[in-house]
Design a protein that fits this description.
16 strands, porin, alpha+beta, 3 domains, wza like fold
Length: 389
């Protein structure tokens, strides 16, 4: 039986000790996960089994039902009937008033004693809601319609003027106004017509957005509530083109939609969504594409918070088993790019603001990292042995 021989040279014993420690470390690393950027494909699949998020395998049906991005909406901003544009006169309104008489020689007749009338332009309603006219005196007009004010003027002239008549028109209404501000051509107050002005028409009248519609957010503040949507969604979705109300504040801001791309791709970064219809395949290509030597073609994942309503409309069942955050239900879409048909889905599956795409490493990459580490370790052992010898 052969017994192990212990080197008498202490330096040789130290070299063997170092070699044993290093080989032991490499063996330990081989038993656990090596460092990598983000989760592996197996880790994502295991997480889905715990129902910490919803995993959806993308196919033709999913692309057709969920491939279009979620629509941002302001349609849920409830309407207040009392705040609709009103023909009632308010404080600060400017009126144009014409008083006529049927006979000649009256109080409001034209020159040379003929019949006619007198115009009173730029009559401003005071803070007390009153106006003052010659021979009429001070009358309360706030809250009354032009027709009601005409009747009030005629009644005040009974016995003073000859068969008087009055015509009242609101030249400028300070009450029927909304404010449009932000990245528009002409920010400021916007006069609302009695027929009702839609949001898109008001923005166009204010000079439109200074930036592309899909890069512009529109926030509407109404009383103590607010809602926000992309300008492109307001133009394309009729339900979003809501009528404005008095005292609405409309704020346009330049906020380009963005997505994050990480993993085995050419360059990990946060990128702009360049067009209103920007696909997952375009997004990966913008970063130089997936890296052939690293990427797992079956491990392309899109992370997004989806609404229960949208998922339910797509026929996804058992949604109550998953957590829901303020942003929505955590959802992961898996694209198995090793299947040729998935390439078509990736061309049609569109991104939305806040999406995150992750391309996992292939299993061979993890093996390659271990082999590289092993080679580096053996090299270190050999160098250490050379020095000790």
């Amino acid at each position: 039986m052969l017994l192990p021989v212990t080197p008498r040279n202490p330096s040789c014993r130290a070299a063997l000790t170092r070699r044993g420690l290093l080989l032991g470390s490499i063996a330990a690393l081989s038993a656990c996960a090596l460092p990598q950027q983000g989760p592996s494909t197996a880790a994502v699949l295991e997480g889905a089994e715990d129902k910490s998020f919803l995993l959806i395998e993308v196919d033709e049906n999913i692309t057709r039902t969920l491939g279009n991005p979620p629509v941002t909406s302001v349609s849920g901003l409830s309407l207040d009937p009392s705040a609709a544009p009103s023909e009632a006169v308010g404080v600060g309104d400017v009126l144009s008033i014409r008083i006529l008489e049927a006979g000649s020689g009256g109080l409001f007749a034209t020159g040379n004693g003929g019949a006619g009338g007198t115009d009173f332009d730029n009559v401003t309603v005071g803070r007390n809601g009153h106006i003052t006219l010659p021979y009429v005196g001070e009358i309360s007009v706030a809250g009354r319609t032009p027709l009601q004010i005409e009747t009030l003027i005629v009644e005040s002239l009974e016995g003073k003027a000859i068969e008087p008549q009055a015509l009242v028109r609101i030249s400028t209404s300070s009450g029927n106004r909304a404010v449009i501000t932000g990245t528009v051509g002409r920010p400021g107050p916007f006069q609302l017509s009695l027929s009702g002005d839609r949001l898109s028409a008001a923005i166009a009248a204010a000079g439109g957005s200074s930036n592309p519609a899909h890069e512009t957010t529109v926030t509407i503040r109404r009383n103590n509530r607010q809602a926000r949507a992309r300008l492109s969604d307001i133009f394309l979705q009729p339900a979003n083109d809501i009528p404005l109300q008095r005292d609405d504040v409309v704020i346009l801001a330049h906020e380009p939609p963005r997505y994050t791309l990480a993993g085995a791709v050419g360059q990990t970064n946060t990128y702009r969504i360049e067009t209103p219809r920007y696909s997952l395949l375009e997004a990966i290509s913008a970063a130089g594409g997936a890296r052939d030597e690293r990427a797992n073609p079956s491990g392309v994942f899109l992370f997004r918070h989806e609404s229960r309503r949208r998922l339910g409309q797509a026929g996804i069942a058992d949604l109550d088993a998953y957590p829901v955050t303020e942003q929505g239900l955590p959802t992961v879409y898996r694209f198995d790019m090793s299947r040729p048909e998935t390439q078509f889905s990736a061309q049609r599956f569109l991104l939305t603001d806040g999406d995150a795409i992750f391309v996992t490493n292939a299993d061979t990459v993890t093996l390659g990292k271990f082999i590289t580490l092993f080679d580096q370790g053996v090299g270190a052992i050999n160098r250490a042995q050379t020095v000790t010898e």
